[in-house]
């Protein structure tokens, strides 16, 4: 359970930083009136939707941290046999990186109000994300054809479970991306479009990060890394 | 401290007006509504409905325990199903949904001075997914093999084996699916509660001016957002074990001489995941109760809350600590003794912020102008019950005391006191307190007092004797104890007595439900602020509050939520949105 505890520590750090800006030491019973010097403490200048997405990503991060925790705990049992990762996953990773880059380009274009570039970026991101999902399905097919079935070994079960969960999150993101893309073609207000594109990019970068982390986990590098850390500590 | 309001006119509000969704038809106004107040009532009604099912299940259990062998239709399998569904419904589908979905939705926007939640559409989806989760849960009663009988903790391997009711039938599948749906729905709602507190606060409403109710619900929601994923992960993995034959939790095991396909899975892993959710869950239910009870006590004792800052810190501290105590539910799982020592220590440390809160409630009452209204009665009953249940928590938090008491009725008595009866008392108090705001009418006083005394005294008569049964060694989760030597004749009498009390207390809840329905039409007119309270929800132009909550302009907040009996003020309460500065006590020392 150490992975999830480390994750929660990070969250607690954020929460602590935010709380430290909320003047927890004030004596509210002594302060009356509309404090003009309180205004800075009222709310964040960030758009509400971004904060909402940030909170949601914390929940998603928590979910994957828990899967990782479970992975390490189950790995310690002797019947664990790691499965060879298909080389296709490298290609998929590249495609997902491309998707993130395309969305980042769309963000830059949206800030400059270049609507054509926004459309191009959104469409590229959507298509590459779809390609990533198809690539993942092909990787699943390859593994099952080679006899690495879901239930034959816990390493396989975790592989399908975690990649599947990640794929579902991409799929959900595609719904949001689809709406944004439709908006870009149907003439949404520029500020609104910019916010939607930024939200999509934020979500995409996060899922890319999650993918890199779980790729490292499934390939076994994460376990090696933790072993090295443990040896350094002891 | 000086009044820092500019004397002439107030600068224009810096809170941008939100674009409110306006319903166009009866359907979007009352059914697929995006108004948090309507969603709150939908949540509460659904939670109450499913809670009644759980109440009936508890009666059935008590029939069996109090009068064993008398009722043929309560087979051991059925008994296990009653236990499981009662526990799961009460903890998740009733208490969590009611406190966060019900009170959270109703009170957060009103108390922070917002027109609605920040993402109303997602908020609406949250309710409908919750309803779907409840329907899936209910459908398991009609599925072949009936609902699961695995106990509310659903421990593998027994939860998905054929010896457990519903284990190889539909029961466990529907249970896990329902939980997964609930968590998805809750996450949608939870995002709203958190972000509305962060971003929806009206002008002048700093975090340190929030009523403690909002602090409690806010912190509990943050915790729930981080804890429910653990249950989600556990449910998904168990579902795969059951449906697709994986071995996440299932060890190599044979059943009726037949080797099952599973191999090497770790049941302890499930326990870790489950309790990583399960322990914060206790505080997810308790923190909103703490917050609400602080407001009830302050309002009905006409006195400011003692130690507001300390109360806020304690809420946050309890929230953080509750994530590092989960393994105290697993002392008997064969863990390393040092591990147990660590978790016993963290468990006992939680007693400190909790005790601070109890002292502050008592000190708020000290020399207050206590009005023994029904909400106040429930709040006082909560303090007593919570202290009682908390003290037995100290017993069970210690490894050496827990081991012999584990799986006895003592544990049942403990958690019913601390997270069953205590939060439910707050729910009742809160309903008596805010019902006038939600409907415009007071609940009937006579019926209310009857309901209070029967519930409070009755709950003690039910759960207090259970401690003794537990100390005698009477185990929990047993459908029939007739032939055991520990079951002396007096223990049998005690069990029958508990059962009779359970029926009486359950009956009192029917009176309460009748009161809820009857008073909508026949209750006394309440007016806008019957309790003369300070917080913003009582200052709305209409009662019940209209769509958009606050009329043309959002309120502006000039003071904290607890200005009661301020010397020099005209009345004994000053609403949060009243400008001006009062009281000699305001001078800095």
From TrEMBL, chain A:
Reading the lineage from the top rank, the first entry is: Bacteria
Report keywords, A-Z: Membrane, Transmembrane, Transmembrane helix
Q: How does it sit in the membrane?
A: Multi-pass membrane protein
Gene3D superfamilies in the record: Cytochrome c oxidase, subunit III, four-helix bundle
The GO molecular function terms of this record are:
cytochrome-c oxidase activity
Q: Which residues cross the membrane?
A: 6-24, 51-73, 88-110, 117-138, 158-178, 199-223
**Could you state one GO biological process linked to this protein?**
aerobic electron transport chain
The answer on whether this UniProt entry bears the keyword Transmembrane helix reads: yes
Entry GO terms, CC: plasma membrane
Q: Which Pfam families match?
A: COX3
Which residues, if any, are the signal sequence? none
Q: Which PANTHER family match?
A: CYTOCHROME C OXIDASE (PTHR11403:SF10), CYTOCHROME C OXIDASE SUBUNIT III (PTHR11403)
User: What family classification does the UniProt entry report for this protein?
Assistant: Belongs to the cytochrome c oxidase subunit 3 family.
Protein name according to UniProt = Cytochrome c oxidase subunit 3
Say which species the protein is native to. Rhizobium loti
Q: What is the lineage of its organism?
A: Bacteria, Pseudomonadati, Pseudomonadota, Alphaproteobacteria, Hyphomicrobiales
TrEMBL record, chain B:
Highest taxon in the source lineage? Bacteria
Q: How does it sit in the membrane?
A: Multi-pass membrane protein
Q: Name one GO biological process term.
A: oxidative phosphorylation
Molecular function GO terms recorded: cytochrome-c oxidase activity; heme binding; metal ion binding
**Keyword Transmembrane, does the record have it?**
yes
Q: Which reaction does it catalyse?
A: 4 Fe(II)-[cytochrome c] + O2 + 8 H(+)(in) = 4 Fe(III)-[cytochrome c] + 2 H2O + 4 H(+)(out)
Q: What are the transmembrane regions? A: 38-60, 80-108, 128-150, 170-191, 212-240, 282-298, 310-332, 338-362, 374-397, 409-432, 452-474, 494-518
Indicate where this protein is primarily found: membrane
- Domain Cytochrome oxidase subunit I profile, residue spans: 21-558
Pfam families listed in its UniProt record: COX1
Q: What Enzyme Commission number does this protein have?
A: 7.1.1.9
Query: Which pathway, per its entry?
Result: Energy metabolism; oxidative phosphorylation
Which compartment or compartments is the protein found in?
Cell membrane; Membrane
Question: Gene Ontology cellular component?
Answer: plasma membrane
List UniProt keywords, sorted A-Z.
Answer: Cell membrane, Copper, Electron transport, Heme, Iron, Membrane, Metal-binding, Respiratory chain, Translocase, Transmembrane, Transmembrane helix, Transport
Q: Which family does it belong to?
A: Belongs to the heme-copper respiratory oxidase family.
Q: What does this protein do?
A: Cytochrome c oxidase is the component of the respiratory chain that catalyzes the reduction of oxygen to water. Subunits 1-3 form the functional core of the enzyme complex. CO I is the catalytic subunit of the enzyme. Electrons originating in cytochrome c are transferred via the copper A center of subunit 2 and heme A of subunit 1 to the bimetallic center formed by heme A3 and copper B.
Q: Which PANTHER family match?
A: CYTOCHROME C OXIDASE SUBUNIT 1
What protein does this entry describe?
Answer: Cytochrome c oxidase subunit 1
Q: Tell me what organism the protein belongs to.
A: Rhizobium loti (Mesorhizobium loti)
């Amino acid at each position: 359970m150490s992975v999830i505890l480390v994750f929660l520590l990070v969250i607690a750090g954020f929460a602590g930083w935010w709380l430290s800006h909320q003047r927890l030491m004030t004596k509210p019973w002594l302060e009356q009136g509309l404090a003009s010097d309180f205004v800075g403490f009222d709310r964040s200048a960030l758009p509400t939707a971004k904060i909402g997405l940030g909170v949601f990503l914390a929940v998603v991060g928590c979910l994957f941290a828990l899967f990782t925790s479970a992975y390490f705990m189950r790995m310690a049992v002797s019947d664990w046999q790691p499965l060879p990762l298909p080389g296709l996953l490298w290609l998929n990773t590249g495609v997902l990186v491309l998707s993130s880059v395309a969305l980042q380009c769309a963000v830059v274009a949206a800030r400059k109000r270049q609507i054509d570039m926004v459309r191009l970026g959104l469409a590229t991101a959507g298509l590459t994300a779809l390609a990533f999902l198809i690539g993942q399905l092909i990787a699943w097919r390859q593994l099952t054809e080679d006899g690495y079935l879901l239930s034959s070994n816990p390493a396989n079960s975790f592989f399908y479970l975690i990649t599947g969960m990640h794929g579902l999150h991409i799929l959900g993101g595609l719904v949001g991306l689809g709406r944004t893309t439709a908006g870009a073609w149907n003439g949404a207000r520029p500020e609104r479009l910019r916010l939607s594109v930024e939200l999509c990019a934020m979500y995409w970068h996060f899922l890319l990060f999650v993918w890199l982390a779980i790729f490292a986990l499934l390939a076994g590098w994460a376990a090696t890394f933790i072993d090295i850390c443990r040896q350094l500590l002891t | 401290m000086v009044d820092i309001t500019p004397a002439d006119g107030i600068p224009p509000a810096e809170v941008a007006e939100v674009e409110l969704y306006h319903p166009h038809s009866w359907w979007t106004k009352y059914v697929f509504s995006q108004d948090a107040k309507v969603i709150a009532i939908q949540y509460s009604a659904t939670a109450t409905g499913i809670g009644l099912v759980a109440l009936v299940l508890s009666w059935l259990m008590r029939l069996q325990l109090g009068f064993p062998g008398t009722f043929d239709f309560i087979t051991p399998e059925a008994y296990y199903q009653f236990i499981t569904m009662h526990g799961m419904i009460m903890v998740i589908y009733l208490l969590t949904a009611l406190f966060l979905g019900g009170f959270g939705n109703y009170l957060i926007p009103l108390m922070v001075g917002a027109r609605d939640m920040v993402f109303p559409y997602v908020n609406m989806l949250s309710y409908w997914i919750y309803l779907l989760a409840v329907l899936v849960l209910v459908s398991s009663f009609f599925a072949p093999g009936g609902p699961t009988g695995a106990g509310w903790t659903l421990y593998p391997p027994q939860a998905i084996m054929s010896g457990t009711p519903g284990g190889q039938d539909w029961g466990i599948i529907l249970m896990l699916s329902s939980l997964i749906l609930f968590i998805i729905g809750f996450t949608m709602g939870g995002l709203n509660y958190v972000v509305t507190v962060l971003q929806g606060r009206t002008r002048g409403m700093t975090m340190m001016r929030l009523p403690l109710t909002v602090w409690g619900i806010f912190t509990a929601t943050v915790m729930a957002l981080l804890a429910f994923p653990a249950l989600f992960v556990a449910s998904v993995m168990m579902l795969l074990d059951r449906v697709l034959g994986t071995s996440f939790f299932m060890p190599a095991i044979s059943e009726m001489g037949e080797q099952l396909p599973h191999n090497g899975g770790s049941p302890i892993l499930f326990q870790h995941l489950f309790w990583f959710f399960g322990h914060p869950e206790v505080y997810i239910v308790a923190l909103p109760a703490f917050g609400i009870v602080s407001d009830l006590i302050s309002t009905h004792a006409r006195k400011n809350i003692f130690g507001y800052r300390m109360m806020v810190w304690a809420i946050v501290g309890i929230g953080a600590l509750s994530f590092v105590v989960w393994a105290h539910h697993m002392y008997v799982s064969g863990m390393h003794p040092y591990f147990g020592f660590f978790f016993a220590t963290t468990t006992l440390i939680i007693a400190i912020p909790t005790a601070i809160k109890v002292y502050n409630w008592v000190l708020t009452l000290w020399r207050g102008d206590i009005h023994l209204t029904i909400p106040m009665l429930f709040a006082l009953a909560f303090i007593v019950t919570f202290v009682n249940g908390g003290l037995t928590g100290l017993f069970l938090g210690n490894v050496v005391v827990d081991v012999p008491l584990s799986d006895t009725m003592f544990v049942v008595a403990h958690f019913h006191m601390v997270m069953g009866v205590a939060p439910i008392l707050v729910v009742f108090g809160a309903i008596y307190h805010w019902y006038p705001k939600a409907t415009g009418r007071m609940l009937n006083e006579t019926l209310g007092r009857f309901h209070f005394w029967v519930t409070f005294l009755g709950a003690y008569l039910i759960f207090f004797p259970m401690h003794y049964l537990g100390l005698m060694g009477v185990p929990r989760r047993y459908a029939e104890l007739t032939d055991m030597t520990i079951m002396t004749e007096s223990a049998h009498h005690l069990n029958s007595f508990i059962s009779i009390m359970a029926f009486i207390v359950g009956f009192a809840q029917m009176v309460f439900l009748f009161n809820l329905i009857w008073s909508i039409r026949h209750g006394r007119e309440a007016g806008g602020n019957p309790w003369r309270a300070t917080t913003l929800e009582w200052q709305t132009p209409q009662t019940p509050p209209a769509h958009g909550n606050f009329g043309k302009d959002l309120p502006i907040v000039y003071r904290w939520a607890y200005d009661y009996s301020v010397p020099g003020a005209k009345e004994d309460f000053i609403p949060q949105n009243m400008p001006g500065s009062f009281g000699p006590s305001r001078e800095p020392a």
